[in-house]
Amino acid sequence: MDPTIEAVEGDITTQRLDAIVNAANSSLLGGGGVDGAIHAAAGPALLRECRELRAGRYRDGLPVGEAVATGAGDLPARWVIHTVGPNRHRGQTDPALLAACFTHSLDVATELGAGSIAFPAISAGVYGWDADEVARVAVDAVRGRVDGGEPVPGLIRFVLFGQRVHDAFRAALQA
Ligand code: AR6
Question: Mind telling me which residue stretches traverse the membrane in this protein (predicted)?
Fold first, then answer.
């Protein structure tokens, strides 16, 4: 059965879904924007797990476009999937890198057995991408997975901060 793909306006930290995706940075140790909100709401258990990742597999940081899961601390979700979007201010303008954030996060969610996943508008804040482009890349990446017959969670929800970004995702889903 095809998954439900939807866009809602809201705060991703309150989503009661199996997995929520964090628009992190390579350090995995927190920051501003949605990353700061997720760490603040999840509490110290999340930072502890991120520090362990940095001490082990991701000693040099999480590369742009890759994704890795942790528990979700005090959040209502079960897992946080951390991914690092391309930073336009550093000349990272390749849409394939942004698409990889979405597809790799879906892969991680599927490996975990997550039945539902929430995405923010990765790279549409501090990292300087235009919301319309993020929305197009995100929706294409997710639909590509579905059309390719690959397993994905049954509910894929984009959770957007503000009407402007919500409108961009609604338009991309209708296209
Ligand atoms: N729920 C949903 N969306 C949110 C929330 C929230 N609670 N808070 C912000 N957004 P950004 P990036 C939106 O800057 O561009 C961090 O410092 C926000 O309005 O969070 O990938 C990291 O540590 C925007 O539409 O992520 C990195 O250093 C979208 O989420 C860097 O920022 C993404 O904005 C990553 O930058």
Answer: none
Could you tell me if the CB of 34 is within 6 A of ligand 1? yes
State the distance from the centre of ligand 1 to the C-alpha of 118, rounded, in angstroms: 13
Question: Model pTM?
Answer: 0.98
Q: What DSSP assignment string belongs to 74-85?
A: TSSSSEEEEEE-
Indicate the number of domains in the chain. Answer: 1
Structure confidence at residue 2 as a pLDDT band (50, 70, 90): confident
Domain with 38 in it: what CATH number?
Answer: 3.40.220.10
Residue 1 has pLDDT above 90, yes or no: no
Atom of ligand 1 nearest to the CA of 31: 23
Residue among 114, 106, 165 at smallest CA distance from 141: 106
Residue 57 CB neighbour total at 10 angstroms: 10
- Centre of ligand 1 from the C-alpha of residue 116, in Å: 20
